[in-house]
Structures are given as structure tokens and as C-alpha cells.
Write the C-alpha cells for this entry.
Amino acid sequence: MRMTRFLAVVAAALTVPALAAEDEGPVTMPIHRLSMDIAVKLATATIDACRKEGLNVAVTVVDRGGHPQVVLRDTLGMDLTLTISRQKAYTAMSFNTPTSQLEGRWSGAYSVPKVDGVIIAAGGLPITGGGAILGGVGVSGAPSGEQDEKCARAGMDAIAFELETVGS
């Protein structure tokens, strides 16, 4: 009887780790990333759209980790536009939503917009494809955030086909 209990305990002890291992996720994950060529195409198309409106802006494309992948500042774009475009891209990527939709979302002295690198102003769009967040694009330098966002949308339209084929 004692031996039977002992064997049952040993069998249970050997089975539980095997069951737990089956519930764990994979050791690595395949992660889609925006290629440099597509990021450059996005940034260039964004600059071109603003130029057609007579605007000199900066554009930043960040990867899914929030790190700058492409940064372009037009000839007469102010230096400050570099920082703001990066923050808009980072914010759009972080929340996976256009930054214009974040305006007025939080209130209070210690709210999310107080976090370094986060800016709540129109002009940032998330980059998604294949059901995954790939990064963000931010534009700064136009007289309004709405114009910044319009240019960013034109850049996104330029890579729409490539984004639709992610994961296929």
C-alpha cells in the first residue's frame, strides 16, 4: 500500500511539469518589422505631400520598439520639429491610435501625457500590417496638427499595398 502511494506521488510529480510545459508559450516569436526601404518610402511620401502644400516639416518613422528608423527634416523645417515628430510617432505607436484621437483623453496632474517622450497632439499615426503594430509615423512643422496628420496619411497611403501584404 505504501509503495502504491509512493509510485502515485512520483507519477504525479513527473506529470505536473510536463503539463505545465505544454501551457507555456513558444520560446521565440516571429515579429514583423517594417523594412528600411518601406520606412524611407513612407517618410519621403510624407515630405512630398507637405511640400505640395508649401510646408517644410520633419518626419520620423519609429519601429515597433519606438526607436527612430527614418528621420527626415525638410530644408526649412525648424530644429524643434525633429523632437516633436519623434514624440508623435512614438505616442501613436505606443497607443496604436492616431494622436489626434488622444487629445482630451486624460486629465489630472499625474496623467499619461506627463511621461517623457509622449505628446498628445495631432500628427502621429500608428503603422500596422498583418494584424500587428509595426511602428509609428510622426510629422511636425505645419501650422496645425491636422495638416501634419494629413501629410502623414498621404505617406501611409503610399505604402498601403505593402502593409496589406504583411504576413501573406
Observations:
- The chain has five helices and four strands.
- Residues 123 and 149 are 4 Å apart (CA to CA).
